[in-house]
Design a protein that fits this description.
Blueprint: E1 3-8, H1 14-23, E2 27-32, E3 35-40, H2 42-51, E4 57-66, H3 70-78, E5 91-99, H4 106-125, E6 136-144, E7 147-153, H5 175-184, E8 193-195, H6 202-211, H7 232-245, E9 254-256, H8 261-269, E10 275-277, H9 281-286, H10 288-297, E11 301-305, H11 306-313, H12 317-325, E12 330-334, E13 340-344, E14 347-351, H13 365-378, H14 383-397, H15 407-422
Parallel strand pairs: 5-6, 8-9, 10-11, 11-12
Antiparallel strand pairs: 1-3, 1-4, 2-3, 4-7, 6-7, 12-13, 13-14
Helix pairs in contact: 2-7, 3-4, 5-6, 11-12, 13-14, 14-15
């Protein structure tokens, strides 16, 4: 049997959510202010919750009707097939809202709807008492200009709660809105994305999930997972399919940065390592106090070229490395064609740069070195192998204009990195 569903959304994003619904194959799609309606099956409830990136929640639409008296509200609510969804042991709450309507008291409307649903369930299950030990159901009564819409929430927490973030900064950008912004932009997974004021990283994370086709609901739970009508098997199947759909071959270029101490504190509390690339000797020289605070208090890994290292310490590369290394876990000082110096505790090494026939454009060289080094570090490789991976990447990007390299060059890079790892 076809089920009427509603995906709520932030005003102005209805077209984005409509396109998502079309891409997921839903039928009878229609939009109105703040919502997209469509029809589907129990499996589509699961799919919508698992894959809609920009919707707020997914609701089962039970019915809509006009009501200007509490009697009309009660009678028409009671007439709906509540037992199709709520079992005898189900527990339910009622939430509500009323805009420009005769029935303006939300609390009274909630009470009337609650009573009507209870009476209908009593009639259906032939009982006067409900244990309410089963799954939870949230019913919403929404009244707009005297038109009542009754729906059951299938999502639970809003769909912006992806499940990958235990904590967040105050007033963060919601993940659903961030995803919509990305989809409305010109960015595609083969283009570079840079968010220089990323805060807790919502936009870069959402972009990475889009690029790799990671379902936004793959890491979280939903209210309807416990519902008898849907069953756990549909959810299990949807999660297996979502994991199989991830494109691990895509390597998007996505960068995020921030100097917000609160964001850094949050990362430290989560057990993450903080990495700092000094980026410019002018910036370092002009704000020594800030850089000293960051490195002394927060930063675990520091990248600097020889000019930046000298601006920070007043010393030449090798001595500067020692000074910086005393303030953090790992210090890296890059010395151009001569390679790089790396120090961690008492371990210090020098890694040569790869031979380059002709330097065309140095844009992105530092970023590529850092990304290669950090990739190696997260894989558990030695400092030497980490630096060699970084050198391979930076040595290749300086031989092309800009920061995008052709696939043939990437294939060669992968071969060279594999040779390093095999040593």
């Amino acid at each position: 049997m076809s089920i009427n569903l509603i995906a709520t959304t932030t005003f102005g994003l209805e077209a984005v959510v409509k396109r998502e619904c079309q891409a997921l194959g839903f039928e009878n799609i229609k939009t109105s202010d703040g919502k997209v309606e469509f029809t589907g099956t129990e499996a589509d409830i699961v799919k919508a919750n698992m894959w809609l990136r920009c919707a707020g929640r997914v609701w089962v639409k039970m019915g809509t009707f006009k009501a200007v008296t509490f009697t009309e509200l009660f009678d028409q609510t009671k007439a709906l097939p509540w037992a199709d969804w709520i079992p005898e042991d189900g527990k339910f709450t009622v939430v509500g809202k009323s805009v420009k309507s005769t029935l303006f008291s939300v609390s009274d409307c909630q009470a009337i709807v609650k009573k009507a649903v209870v009476e209908k369930l009593k009639q259906t299950y032939h009982t006067d008492w409900f244990d309410e030990t089963g799954a939870s159901y949230t019913i919403q009564v929404g009244i707009l200009k005297d038109v009542v819409t009754l729906a059951i929430d299938t999502s639970g927490s809003g769909l912006h709660m992806r499940g990958y973030r235990a904590n967040a900064l105050d007033a963060p950008l919601k993940e659903t809105l961030a995803s919509a912004m990305i989809q409305l932009s010109y960015w595609r997974k083969n283009r570079i994305l840079l968010d220089p004021f990323c805060g807790s990283g919502t936009i870069p994370i959402e972009a990475a999930m889009i690029a790799r086709n990671i379902a936004p609901g793959i890491h979280r739970k939903f209210a309807s997972e416990e519902w008898e009508r849907i069953g756990k098997d549909l959810w299990k199947k949807a999660r297996v399919e979502a994991y199989q759909a991830i494109d691990y071959d895509v390597m998007p270029e996505i960068y995020g940065s921030d100097i917000d101490p609160d964001a850094i504190e949050l990362a430290k509390e989560a057990g993450l390592q903080i990495c700092l690339d000094m980026a410019s000797y002018n910036i370092v020289a002009n704000d020594m106090e800030f850089f000293s605070l960051l490195i002394n208090k927060y930063v675990d890994i520091v990248f600097a070229n020889e000019e930046e290292a000298k601006a920070f310490t007043g010393k030449e590369p090798k001595e500067a490395l020692g000074v910086i290394a005393k303030k953090c876990s790992i210090a890296i000082v890059k010395v151009g064609a001569e390679g790089s110096y790396i120090r961690k505790g008492t371990e210090e090494i020098k890694v040569s740069a790869i031979p380059v026939e002709k330097v065309v454009d140095t844009t992105g060289a530092g970023d590529y070195f850092a990304s290669g080094f950090l990739y190696g570090l997260t894989c558990g490789y030695s400092l030497e192998k980490c630096a060699k991976i970084g050198s391979i990447l930076s040595g290749n990007v300086i031989q092309v204009i800009g920061t995008s390299m052709p696939q043939e060059r990437w294939d060669e890079i992968k071969l060279n990195i594999n040779r390093i790892l095999a040593e």
